[in-house]
Design brief:
Layout: H1 7-20, E1 24-29, H2 39-52, E2 54-58, H3 69-73, H4 75-91, E3 96-99, H5 102-117, H6 119-129, E4 141-144, H7 145-153, H8 155-161, E5 170-173, H9 196-203, E6 207-208, H10 227-243, E7 248-251, H11 254-271, E8 278-280, H12 281-288, H13 306-311
Parallel strand pairs: 1-2, 1-3, 3-4, 5-6, 5-7, 7-8
Length: about 325
Amino acid sequence: MSTTLLPEQRAGDAHKQTKSSQSKRYGFFPGCVAKESCKELFNSAMLLADRLGIELVELTAASCCGASVVNDTNRDVARVLNARTYAQAEALGLDDVITICSTCTGHMRAANKELLESDVHMTQANAILGKFGARYNGTVTVRHLLWLLIDDIGLDRLREMVVRPLNGLKVAPFYGCHIIRPESVNGWESSRRPHSLEDIIAAIGGEPIDYAGKTRCCGFHIQLEKEGVATSMVGQNMRMAKDRGAQAVLTPCPLCHLALDGYQADSAARWGRTDLPTFHLPQLVAFALGVPPEKLGLNKHLIDPRTVMVAQELIA
């Protein structure tokens, strides 16, 4: 007589098998937004890491990556701030710094590239770090969680770990800017034809939706200067996704999430109502891997994703 296991039971068994092997440790740089405006992103990332059997060692003494404001004001200061973060990872014996923010990824990789390619920049950074008993030796690689999922876990393994498939939920990927551009810094995949998010969506049982807006800017960085333009950018991108049949959106960037989740209502006058819930990358993957939905902060979204999840019979 066979016994049918509930998703949570299957997830528990898979989780025990994964945890039985020694966890790989990664330095973890959550960034500012995931610790404040999008706390559900931070929590989901930690829950996903536990399911995957990896350890994200948060670099709690790290400071902001310097995105936009510091970089625009003083590039040298921003570079040293990032060198300080890398030095912390090295001191813990970690050679990877994992981010969950596309903007952090772009700025941190650019800073690391400058440090590794210029003796002048590296010497300058270490002269300052040395005053505080620290040093960066150039052994750290900055990667996004998205890249870790594909390169380290692998799509085949991810498929095997799915216990709550998405039942063909039509999901529009939204890459935004900083995780794919410029290719000289973030050349992990093509900026014109990326497919990593589509691969993840398919691996966890969803149907990826292709549309022109997936690699466009979300408008976040011009909100304070040109809010109307930012709103229109969100509306246009979401209209394109909706017209192709999307039921939801998946993004690897909390800044994109804030823009897409926050401005769809304001853009309706020009672009029509779209009401597409926007998932954080680790939220949707963690859900598929068996993390209970009530732990993923889905109630924190302005456009409640639980509505479409109920309609798709993913949750009751």
